[in-house]
Amino acid sequence: MDRRALIVNPVKEGADALVDAFRKRCADDGAEATVLETTAQDPGPGMAVEALDGGAELIVVGGGDGTVRAVSGVLAGAEIPLGLVPLGTGNLFARNLSLPIDDPEAALGVALEGRDRRIDLAWARVDDGDELAFVVMAGLGLDATMMANADSGLKAKAGWLAYVASAAQSIAGDSIRIRVDIDGRFALDRRQRGVMIGNCGRIQGDIEVFPGARVDDGILNVLAVAPRGLPGWFRVAAALLLRFRRHSQPDLGHLTGRAVRVAAAHPDDIQLDGDHLGRGSVLDVRVDPGALTVRVPR
């Protein structure tokens, strides 16, 4: 019998309806259905291990980017397809895979009947901590501070617009000295507001932070943000909104490579796929090409 597992974040809106739809679809297909709920203590890795140990041939995640990130690290190299039903605030990974964002039923259909696509997985280490997987983006500095300052109540009501309000609070901070090394070689050392490292390039509003980035190219994309005063912020905004190729202007630096080290003069905020991890001084990131199999539209 075909065995399928659903790992769902029960606090997300639409979670109950997704569980019912998943069970019904599995029953209609004659498949065995297992439903596992994440908890505050375990956002997904334990459920992914349980699903694999139970012989699941497909694992569907119902939640946001944080839940997807937590499960993806366990599925690295397992060749078990990962289906996505976006129930989060940003759902950036689903956006980059052209999955249905506002239609859970359609997304479930893709998860169950779509085609398999091998994509890259990224791994990050903060200071001397353990490696953690991510699928969209890591950041040290400004973008991580935005994640930390985003009001959870506003996120529940206004979705990703809560990050816009957080950005207005966060851009007034000071820049710090940050060094960037690419593939073991020096690349950049200057005062900056932050550095972002992406496995894929699109965020909310169809803005491309990393123009031309692909989830299966085996490459990490790096964006170093160093605006020079208020005019610099306007130039940064224009570059992102107008999709200037590779952001060729002094306020932004675009780099690519397979391994990236970001070292700050003092600890700053760090995030992975929208999850604020606290503060750290060194962020090491590497790409794991083709390590994850995901379900995408046929």
Kindly describe this structure.
The chain has 298 residues and is of the alpha+beta class. The chain has two domains: 3-113, Rossmann fold; 123-289, Tumour Suppressor Smad4 (Sandwich), CATH 2.60.200. 30% of the residues lie in helices and 38% in strands. The protein is built from nine helices and 14 strands. The protein has helices at residues 15-29, 45-53, 65-75, 92-96, 104-113, 142-149, 152-158, 161-170, 229-241, and strands spanning 3-8, 32-37, 58-63, 82-86, 115-126, 131-134, 137-141, 176-182, 185-192, 194-198, 220-225, 252-257, 259-272, 275-296. Strands 5, 6, 7, 8, 9, 10, 11, 12, 13 and 14 form a ten-stranded antiparallel β-sheet that branches. Strands 2-1-3-4 form a four-stranded parallel β-sheet, sandwiched between helices. A hairpin with a 2-residue loop joins strand 8 (176-182) and strand 9. Helix 2 (45-53) crosses helix 3 (65-75) and helix 6 (142-149) crosses helix 8 (161-170). It is elongated, with a radius of gyration of 19 Å. The model has no long low-confidence stretch (mean pLDDT 88).
